[in-house]
């Protein structure tokens, strides 16, 4: 696998939030006020790996929240991204991590895209333990959840997040179903408003079958470095099929998983078959245009297993 080197209608959950974070809110332009934005654009953020004052790489992340019993409100918010986005290395790699903190951005208004603010979170404790959590069952999974404590966003406005309900929308997905990836290819995006680029693709394998025995499916899409960590969302604006096979109308948005990497190959001389390559700058013909997507259920399982009290006492209080 080659890892990018730079690394019915759905409503967004909102949190009435004021901030204890660095930076100030950008000033909106007059012509931008009054608009209503697609909530998923506000759930997605650039994820910048930083060492000291130097930016190492840029990927993508998105907000995901668990809810209190009975769905009465937000319990815990996480930034979901890839392991290689927060470390600069593939999962299970013995290489030294390349950064010490993560910077990302939170939007606080659905009508004002310039209303956002930066968040900086240290990635390790004083003893070197990671701040993030990941799957114990699948340690090779290129997925991490970075807990975001409420003091980092309280009182700021609205916080837009995915939740488990976004993963269970009654919308049938099959090979060739349309999916979108929201991200920041090669760092190219609306830097004035920090809104992502939407790239459209299609499911390339059976979504209910674990590809190569892992909780993964493939997506046929043109994706680039900087999009690692993008949410992958099944989307329809009109007629769609329910899980039972009924034809429905609406604008469903179903969180399918998190994009990790593109499959890269280099032809062997003489036989025309492909073999994996490990890095370098892709050249024309290297990409199969097939991306790995870790399934949403894995995100849900990691979030459900999170022990907030233990993490706050053992990890967060000892952060660098």
Which descriptors would you attach to this protein?
Thrombin, subunit H, 320 residues, mainly beta, single chain, seven-stranded mixed β-sheet, six-stranded antiparallel beta barrel, 4 helices, 2 domains
Provide structural commentary.
- With 320 residues, the chain is mostly beta strands.
- It has 2 domains: 30-164 and 299-318, no CATH class; 168-296, Thrombin, subunit H (Beta Barrel).
- The chain has 4 helices and 16 strands.
- The strands form 3 sheets. Strands 1, 2, 3, 4, 5, 6 and 7 form a 7-stranded mixed β-sheet that branches.
- The two termini are 32 Å apart.
Offer a concise description of the structure.
This protein is mainly beta. It folds into two domains: 155 residues, no CATH class; 129 residues, Beta Barrel (Thrombin, subunit H).
Rg is 19 Å
Mean pLDDT: 85
Question: What is the H/E string?
Answer: HEEEHEEEEEEEEEEEEEHH
The description of the largest β-sheet is:
7 strands, mixed
Beta strand % = 25-35%
Q: Strands, helices and their partners?
A:
Layout: H1 39-43, E1 44-51, E2 54-67, E3 74-81, H2 83-87, E4 101-107, E5 116-122, E6 144-148, E7 162-163, E8 178-183, E9 197-203, E10 216-220, E11 231-235, E12 238-241, E13 247-250, E14 253-267, E15 274-276, E16 287-295, H3 296-304, H4 308-314
Parallel strand pairs: 2-7
Antiparallel strand pairs: 1-2, 1-4, 2-3, 3-6, 4-5, 8-9, 8-11, 9-10, 10-16, 11-14, 12-13, 14-15, 14-16
